[in-house]
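The following record pairs a protein chain with its ligand, flavin-adenine dinucleotide.
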Amino acid sequence: MCAMTSPFKQNVQVNQPLARYTAARLGGNADYLFIARDTEWLEIVEVLNTAWKHNIPVTIIGGGANILISDKGIRGLTIINRVSELDHGNWENSSNVSATAGTNLIRLTRYCQEHGYKGMEWAIGVPGTVGGAVVNNAGAHGADMSDSLFHAVVYEHGRGAQLYTVEELNYAYRSSVLKFRDNKRFMVLLATFKLEQDDPTMIQERMDEFNAYRKRTQPPGASLGSIFKNPDGDYAGRLIESVGLKGHQIGDVQVSHVHANFLVTLSEVASATQYYELIRHVQKTVYEQTGIELELEIQVLGEWD
Ligand SMILES: Cc1cc2nc3c(=O)[nH]c(=O)nc-3n(C[C@H](O)[C@H](O)[C@H](O)COP(=O)(O)OP(=O)(O)OC[C@H]3O[C@@H](n4cnc5c(N)ncnc54)[C@H](O)[C@@H]3O)c2cc1C
């Protein structure tokens, strides 16, 4: 990072490591880092507007469960959004739960169960925040955000707070209108879910089943979940296994023995460069042997050679 005079009045740190904020525990430093936890919206919006005014690129990280940050880190401002508030009630003729974007998705799922709202059980084992899930259309066990999201509030450059209905988010498999926007000048602030009432015990039973399935089929430890999207009519994990890459290792990053679509970080000396090399190697090998191009489900951020 070159020497810079910080334009921020708020508590924005300079040249800070990001690895601890990602599920893979990898990646370099942020030029500027703002951690929003018990932070008022006004303060977050001020930080965003200052960055935008000075043409400083902004990257928002929720739980860091779906991003690979390069070893060179992220230029500009990174905001870690962990602002977590939940509310529920009956409005607009339905049972609703609302969550600020920094709320842990599993916390939201438990909250829904405790208050007798069904529909979010699928998210019980999905790490990350509500904001990341809104952007990615996170999903599991045959359901995803598009099934239960009502609307999301998104703060946008030059437009302020905008309400997006679930239709306007244009959800598809692990994708949304926000995920691949060229102009990244936005931040999800809040999501509201339209749910139905059910017996909390029944909801808990479904959550227990999903948790047990996850424990049986997915590896523990540092990973980014599924690296590749499942191609039409097939599974990325099955394809990777079929080309003999289960257990394949580059440096200290390994194709998991438990689930071949997971790449696990084995030690603290593993690097994002090794992680990315293994991703490229898997893509190349699967393509050469099957003709299928595996598409990334995770997002790769920061500076790469
Ligand atoms: C062990 C493991 C299991 C997983 N299993 C699943 C699964 O079953 N199903 C599934 O769908 N995913 C799964 N994932 C991936 C991950 O949990 C989801 O993609 C999750 O929704 C990511 O949320 P996050 O807050 O961590 O997002 P991040 O990884 O922090 O960010 C993802 C994207 O969202 C953007 N973003 C995040 N918050 C905001 C915001 N407030 N405003 C604007 N942009 C924002 C980021 O800039 C980035 O583009 C798994 C991951 C792991 C590690």
